[in-house]
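QA checklist item 7 of 12: single-chain prediction sanity check.
[x] sequence parsed
[x] length recorded as 304
[x] structure emitted
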Amino acid sequence: MEILRTPESRFENLPGYDFKPNYLDLNGLRIHYLDEGYPSAARTYLCLHGEPTWSYLYRKMIPALSENGRVLVPDLPGFGKSDKPERMDDYSFEMHFEILKKFLKETEAQNIILICQDWGGLLGLPLAMEFESLFKGLVIMNTGLPDVTSISWLDPRNILGAAGFMAWRTFAVLHPDLPVGSVVSAGCWPPMQLPSSVVAAYVAPFPDKSYKAGVDAFPRLVPLTWSHASLPYIQKARKKLEKSKLPKLIMFSDRDPVSWSQREYFSMLQNVLADIAIQNAGHFLQEDKGKELAQHILHYFKDI
């Protein structure tokens, strides 16, 4: 496996990102993560990013959360400051999942509140269901657990939602040198209005096309066929999640064309503390409304 590592100079002077880097060697890859707050805190907030972002996405939420607990924010393989296998075939759902399992073990995370969005949910929710005893709650934002074998897949809302995702997937497949900065900026609200310095921070992990294999792989790892290798992970997680009594906070934004149709599924789960529509926020709601999200989390989980 050929591995690329983004030069540290690419990450100098990023706006709002003054956090100490931490690294673990997991399955032959150097994985970067943030570890803020207090390691001995009573709770741990595990924040998982998705496509095509990295831990930078959570920078507005970390200060408030770290005053109330430990905050762990890993960069998935292929993203941020983590190592980047050079071939798209090096990436799989299993590869990401095994890395996250080892990350939990090595960081000795306990009493975890999962905070997930986009691929952070597709990976994080199966992770939480496999190690449910380590978790105290779930914060589910602009994500999904699509099961193409379920009858609910025929619901018109899910069909429309799938159309939105397929438009994005088609764009990603046709653009192997994905314009990461433009994708993130277009996925915020209002679209294409992010400051150039912030756009540059999202582009920083990818000096050129060769660093983007992980970005290119993610759209192809969403299980859209019955035989897809990712599907068993999703189906297993859904079965457990539908029985889970873990407290859940649902926060979907009002301007997300990608995952909006998945909100109802999560809102129908057991022990939902609140189902909040985040106003004037796009797919990357942490970028648009990070401080507001953190306050909702602190409020609803204050006694848990």
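[x] summary fact logged: The longest strand covers residues 29-36.
[ ] second reviewer sign-off
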